[in-house]
Structures are given as structure tokens and as C-alpha cells.
Amino acid sequence: MLPLREQNGTVTTFDPTDLLPDDLLERIRSRAASVDAGNVFPDADLAELRTTGYLAALVPADLGGAGLGLAEVSVLQQRLATAAPATALAINMHLVWTGVAKVLADRGIDTLRFVQEGAAAGEVFAFGISEAGNDLVLFGSDTVAEPLPDGGYAFTGTKIFTSLAPVWTQLGLHGLDTTSPDGPQMVYAFVPRTEAVVTRDDWDTVGMRGTQSRTTELHGAVAAPDRVVRRIAPGPQPDPLVFGIFSVFELLLASVYTGIARRALDLAVEAAKSRTSKRTGRSYAQDPDIRWRIADMALAYDALLPQIESLSRDVDERADHGGLWFAKLSGVKHRAVTTAKQVVDEAMLVAGGSSYFTRNELSRLYRDVLAGMFHPSDPESAHSTVAGAWLGPLEA
């Protein structure tokens, strides 16, 4: 059963094919192998997704978007990832910012309205948070945020894993202002693509090649005063912006990797039905060991769907999980990426040695799914967050 949404008091069925029709999905699937082999950005995918209104899926209808919630966009991202995981992951980073804008707007904070309006007008927003060696992630930054006389900021530093690198028009980022009279402040802002932003051509990875998540150098990149969206103290805290970023980021990541798991499961079923055992003369779909493997894959995959949907709806409906919010969010992301890797591993065994050839789609999924462990929250961070939520902080 597909999720439901309510608009103007009327509950309607959500149909994911409205923004992601079957024929478009198949065209995206047909391009995925060449995008990966060429280590290029999926420009054609982006162009078609923009035309359908996909980039504005989370933007309210009165601002020109589709007016969907996080629960519905999670379904869309799972669907997109079954065709092209790298395309889904790249688009994820744009959707994170539009999702954060929605989370804030739903809570009466309108500071990211320009993100919603920009997405509806065709702007592409990238996510410039990750920094080499910075395990504080949202709670600290090595990037210098220098205040300017007009209220803007100039950012100097290096961001890594900047997806959408060749195509973004606005980069959402953070930096640390150590000059503030009220103590160090984390500054969140958006900068346009200018000569002060240098994108290295250094994305040559095992998988997820189409994301083109290149390194970004900031050499005094200026955010105008009206693009400085938040100043908050460093360190963990329940600020609405931090919650918005964390919740949307984790849930949409979980969605992408859950989509990979679904595609691997489907391919394993196809392989089992198409292969015939020389020993028994019967289809591998009748082999007890293969049946057990596929059943185990399906059991693991099925457990992800209600978790992601439930938490996504909780964000949409402003549920209160108190101090357990971050544990729940990091937990669902961790479960999704580890389960997806397990499912892909099993699918490779079901499909046999042919899956080891690069021409086989499973070999690409095998490489793509590895990236899941490197996104925040990584396994160490997830376990630390959950332990803290249930046991309290470590004693000094």
C-alpha cells in the first residue's frame, strides 16, 4: 500500500509514478552503466528529473512544487535508487536542503524559503558539510567563517564529498566564526558558484561514480547577509536546523540504500529463476539453499520499509521522540546501509560467478553499496549515539 497525503483536508493516494514514471525510470536505468564506466555526472538524468518537477518534490504546492512530505519522497528515492543508485544519491543532497526547508517551515521558521523558491525555479543545491578528519560533522568545522561588515560571511576551507559538483548553483555549508563576542559560533549559509569556489576533478572511486562528489576549495567564498541562515554554538544541541539536516539526511540516505537492497533482491530472484542446475536439472529457484538465501534477503529488506516510513512520517507530523530522536535516526540509517550490503552480498552468491563481471548490474550494486558505511552516521558514531541515549554520557 502506498503512503497517503493530506491536502486541504482531503486525503489522497500518493502515486510515485507522477514524478517518476516507469518509462523515465527505465531510461535512467539504461544509462546507469555508461555513467559508471565513464565516471561522469548523469546530466541526462538530472535534465529529465528537473522536467518532471522531481527537484521540487518537497516544495509546497503554493511555491511551485509538488507539495510532498518526507515519507513520500523517501518512496521516490527508493524507487530511483533501484534504477541508478548514484543518480539517487546525488539528487539526495539537493533534496536534503529542500527537506530541511520544509522541516523548518513546518515548525514556523521561514529562513529557507529562498531554497524552496530556488528549487522550484530550477536551482540545484549542494551539500557542503563534510571535511576531511572532522568527525564532529554538524557540531564543528575546520572551515573559517569570517564575518563581513554588511552581515555576510566569507568562507575559507576545504569540503569533501560535495555531490553534484559539476552542476550545483548554490552550496549550503557551514564554518566556524571564532571572532564573535558571544563565543565561537557555527555559521550555516549558502554561497553561489564563483571564482572563490574551486572544484577539484578528483572523483575516481570504487563506486557511486555518477555522484561526482568532488573536493571543494573555498577561498573567501561570500555568503550574502540574506543567505546566512543560522548562527549557533558548536557542539550537539537540539537546534531546529541541526535536527532538520540530521533527520532528512539520515532518512533519505536510508531510502537510497534500501532501494539498492530491493534491486539486488529482484535481480537475485531473476537469476534463481533463470539458472538451471546441471546436477538436478531443475531451476535454482527450486534449490533449498537458494530459496533460504532469497528468503533471508527478503526478511531483511522487508524490515526496513516500516522503519523508514514511520520515522519519515514522524518528522512530517512533528512527533516528539525527545532525547531518542538522534538515536532513532542514526539507527535507521545504520540498519539500512548494513542490511543493503548484506542483501547485495547474498544476491551475488545467488547469481553466481557471472555477477563478478563488470557487465553484470550486480557488480555495480556491489561497488555502490559500499559507500553507505562512509556517510554520517558511520557505525562508530551510530553506536555511540544510541549508547548515549540509553545509558547516558560517558563519565569523565
Could you walk me through the main structural features you see in this protein, from its secondary elements to its overall organization?
It is a single chain. With 396 residues, the protein is an alpha+beta fold. The chain folds into 3 domains: 4-123, Acyl-CoA dehydrogenase/oxidase, N-terminal domain (Butyryl-Coa Dehydrogenase, subunit A, domain 1, Orthogonal Bundle), CATH 1.10.540; 126-232, Butyryl-CoA Dehydrogenase, subunit A, domain 2, CATH 2.40.110.10; 240-391, Butyryl-CoA Dehydrogenase, subunit A, domain 3 (Up-down Bundle), CATH 1.20.140.10. 46% of the residues lie in helices and 15% in strands. It has 10 helices and 10 strands. A 4-stranded mixed sheet has the order 3-6-7-10, with helices on one face. Strands 4-5-9-8 form a 4-stranded antiparallel sheet, with no helix packed on it. α1 (22-38) packs antiparallel against α2 (43-52) and α3 (70-83) packs antiparallel against α7. The mean pLDDT is 95.
